[in-house]
Design a protein that fits this description.
The protein is α+β, with helices and mostly antiparallel strands and 189 residues long. The model is unreliable at 25-33 (pLDDT under 50). The N and C termini lie far apart (61 Å). The protein is globular, with a radius of gyration of 22 Å. It has two domains: 1-33; 35-186, Aminopeptidase. It contains six helices and seven strands; from the N terminus they run H-E-H-H-H-E-E-E-H-E-H-E-E.
Length: 189
């Protein structure tokens, strides 16, 4: 009799524990499915990306706003304001529950080398891992295109970015001057 009661109680606890695990699994699946990295869409995303450029110009661009046409870059996916680079950039945005959180822009510098040109996350979305997710997406995409090295450049005073690139993603510093730190990441296939 005692054994039968213990087995019933154990059986009930197993069912309750299983339901809790299932609920956690569903919650994780829903949370993950509301956060996606998608192709940049000019009509949907340009205003948000422009705002990030205005807020973070010093961190994103070495030139002055008069020397660099962000709208040309976004409209034509060009890595610079030149018609020969039209279509060169891949632009991706991270959205969570359909709200813009940040973006990454990258391109093939040559047949072996990829370059992360821009990576920025909204101030209200920082410290949540979005920058790392965007960077990892760019690295994975460039790697799948056969790149063996990924490069990027940031400011020496951009400590958060340097921490991300060096400590979380494994980039190595190859050069530094007073304005920029040049980083590289060998990619294994």
């Amino acid at each position: 009799m005692i054994l039968r009661a213990r087995l019933k109680r154990h059986h009930r606890m197993t069912i309750v524990f299983g339901c809790i695990l299932a609920a956690i699994g569903v919650w994780l699946w829903i949370a993950r499915s509301t956060q996606i990295i998608v192709d940049f869409d000019y009509a949907r995303d340009a205003q948000e990306v422009h705002a990030l450029f205005r807020q973070n110009w010093y961190w994103l661009v070495a030139a002055t706003p008069e020397q660099y046409d962000v709208d040309f870059i976004l409209r034509y996916r060009a890595r610079k304001h030149a018609f020969d680079s039209i279509g060169a950039i891949t632009l991706k945005v991270l959205r969570e529950q359909n709200a813009f959180k940040g973006f990454v822009a990258y391109y093939k510098k040559n047949p072996q080398t990829g370059f992360i040109l821009f990576l920025s996350v909204k101030d209200t979305a920082r410290r949540k891992g979005y920058g790392e997710q965007l960077a990892r997406h760019a690295i994975k995409d460039l790697s799948s295109q056969g790149m063996t090295t990924i490069e990027l450049v940031t400011r020496p005073s951009n400590e958060r970015a340097l921490n991300l690139y060096r400590n979380k993603l494994g980039f190595k510093e190859i050069r530094r001057d007073q304005d920029f730190v040049y980083l590289t990441l060998p990619v294994e296939h």
